Amino acid sequence: MFIITVVSDTIVLPPDEFEPGKHIPHIRRRIQEKYVDRVIPDVGLVVALYDVIRITDAYIHPADFHHQKGGAFCKVAFRLCVFRPMVGETIVGTVDRSTATGLYVKLGSWFKDVHIPYADLKDPCLYDEQTKLWIWQYKREDATDSFFYRPGAEICFSVKAIVFNQRQENKSTLAQAVAEKDSKGPSAPLPPMQVLGSVAGDGMGLTSWWAED
């Protein structure tokens, strides 16, 4: 679910952070401010700074239009802890909400962009417009049991794909179509990273369905 990735970047320290022996904590703080809780395209969601590998000699630039106070430009190599689940990985989350396009699932309070399209729910299923809930209709020999995907319930799903959305005009994507259908308009913002999941496999779905008596 989590990976370590190496990044090289130029970190700028203002003059009041030049104090000898104390520049490393300032560099770490500025890396965290720039990267943590942000998505690196085609990599994943940064959750923490793992460590700093290397800091090269800094170049001092005078004040200019972009950096009015001037600063020290440091080339830094560092490692980040990134949320990037593997395709096929099994994850347990919480049902956040349902729409006509499927389920939206959150992982704790730090990631809320998991989408399970209705085609990847257990079959047969139906969407109740009145309750706004998806229902799995499990057919037995003599009866049909209804299992509801209720908000707040714990759900086990497998990862089908990771989608990175970038702002691109005049380009239609599946994620854009889903967002537009849910919002009933063309201006719905796309999350920078979205996990597409499935509960169609054996043992998937709400964990309460499979709880032992």
TrEMBL record:
Annotated RNA polymerase Rpb7-like N-terminal domain ranges read: 8-63
Entry superkingdom: Eukaryota
Q: Which residues form the RNA polymerase III subunit Rpc25 domain?
A: 89-210
| Localisation | Nucleus
Return the similarity comment: Belongs to the eukaryotic RPB7/RPC8 RNA polymerase subunit family.
Q: Which residues form the signal peptide?
A: none
Keywords for the protein's UniProt record, in alphabetical order: DNA-directed RNA polymerase, Nucleus, Transcription
GO terms, biological process: transcription initiation at RNA polymerase III promoter
The protein in question is named: RNA polymerase Rpb7, putative
The terms describing its cellular component in GO are:
RNA polymerase III complex
Extract the InterPro entries matched here: NA-bd_OB-fold, RNA_pol_III_Rbc25, RNA_pol_Rpb7-like_N_sf, Rpb7-like, Rpb7-like_N
